[in-house]
Amino acid sequence: MATLSVQTIGAAGLDPTYAAASGGGDKLKPGKGTFLHVINGGGSSITVTLVAPGTYYGSVANPDPMYTVGASGEMMIPVPASPFANASDSGLASVTYSGVTSVTVAAIRI
Asked: What pLDDT, in 10s, does the model give residues 61-106?
């Protein structure tokens, strides 16, 4: 599991750096205006899951939203601090992928 550095889009723009998606998932610092850009260069759809730690009512776990990125497609997924910052993991958010072959990602903040 790799921790992605969040890249900020400034007044001059940003030429983001992408990394291969990690088989065990990745982590990033969530926040306002932060998103994960997923590029699926493979021939099959993948599912990207953001882990929402904690509970929302009693002992009912927060649901983990899942996003389908089509074959040869891409998606920008918002990653706000609430509900994705995990206090027991230095405030980082965790993301997993159903497949990582030909999948690249970048954590970006605007």
From this structure: 999 999 999 999 999 999 999 999 999 999 999 999 999 999 999 9
- pTM of the complete model: 0.94
CA distance 110 to 92: 18
- Residue 9 Cα to chain centre, angstroms: 17
CB 28, CB 36: distance < 8 Å: yes
Contact between residue 10 and residue 16 where contact means Cβ atoms under 8 Å apart? no
Q: Which residue, 82, 74, 13, is CA-closest to 39?
A: 74
**Chain CA centroid to CA 91, Å:** 14
Terminal Cα-to-Cα distance of the chain (whole angstroms) = 24
Q: Which residues pair with 26 in a beta bridge?
A: 2, 95
